Amino acid sequence: MTHPEREVVIVAHRGMAAGCPENTLAALRRSAAAGFPVIEVDLRATADGHIVLMHDETVDRTTNGAGEVGRMTLAEVRSLDAGSHAGPRFAGERVPTYPEALQALHGLGATLVLDIKPGPTLDNERVARLTEQHGADPAVIIAARSITDLRDFKRLSPGLRTLGLVPGPEAGPPDPAAIEEFALAGADIIRLWPQWILTPSQEAPPGRSPLVHRLHDLGTPAWATADTLYGDISPDHPREDLTELVRLGVDGMITNLPELLRDVLAARATAAPVDIGGRSSCRG
Prior knowledge:
Layout: E1 9-12, H1 25-33, E2 38-45, E3 51-53, H2 74-78, H3 98-105, E4 111-116, H4 124-133, E5 140-144, H5 147-156, E6 161-165, H6 176-184, E7 189-192, H7 194-198, H8 210-217, E8 222-225, H9 238-247, E9 252-255, H10 258-268
Parallel strand pairs: 1-2, 1-9, 2-4, 4-5, 5-6, 6-7, 7-8, 8-9
Antiparallel strand pairs: 2-3
């Protein structure tokens, strides 16, 4: 099968963490204003069942408070300063709720990828219903960590797109059967770890990862989480890793370096007139 040249989707990880207080409305608005078409956020539930944007189990790293999100009420979480750690001009930024995030992006043309963190008070139906109530089904991609969750969201809201977060060790080796199972179960996109893609192999055509090649044969786009904060790609030579992932056929990247990825794609597209927008960041 011949694979045409594909546009690579830039996904701002945690709302564009670099320079901004992650998972805040300020970060989401800046990402959208910067022209990044897709923004990834993390959802957790408070003790009283409200869904908020928070990556970690605790509020310690990104707010002036301490404690587990799942043991705190919404009022307790909302009383915290979630911006000062990124700079004094973000002082007073609050942890947003999921409905507030949907409202903030309404009309901006951006898509939200929801990384749903498991917890006793967070259930799939509530996420699906809140999304539906805000008329946001077309603007949301659900990241499912299991085949069970994938099928559950397909049942709850068939119109929602899904991203399959295939489990497995980041350093590999990957389980091709598990990857294919997500695709065959109906995941609209599959997320692979970079090392699964970057590992040399003779099982695919030149310049193509065998895993990416197989997903393309199945008609499923392949995304990668390419974040230097967690060592998904090298913090010492991120441009080289991003360039190689693009060369190997990845269709999208969830990254804390969206501007750098945009530069990589611009350099790659010099022969083709593709408008990828201007530069912007929370540092400005």
